[in-house]
Amino acid sequence: MLVFIPTVGEYVIPELLGGTNTYMMGRLMWDQYFTDTNWPVAAAVAVTMTLFLLIPLVIFQYSQARALKGRDE
Q: Which of 5, 10, 18, 29 lies 20 to 30 angstroms, CA to CA, from 53?
């Protein structure tokens, strides 16, 4: 989780390392907000990115709670 979360939001590091050929979700959102000023698409990308981050976190938290509950019994 600690590796996955920053890779979704990064837009500066992929551009510095890979140039314009690397295109990640963070860079897409940046371009839509500031270059194309297409705010509805940028908002949809932001919501999608948030869901992509929240769903694994909820699953992880649920599995950890089940593991603790199983250990207590």
A: 18
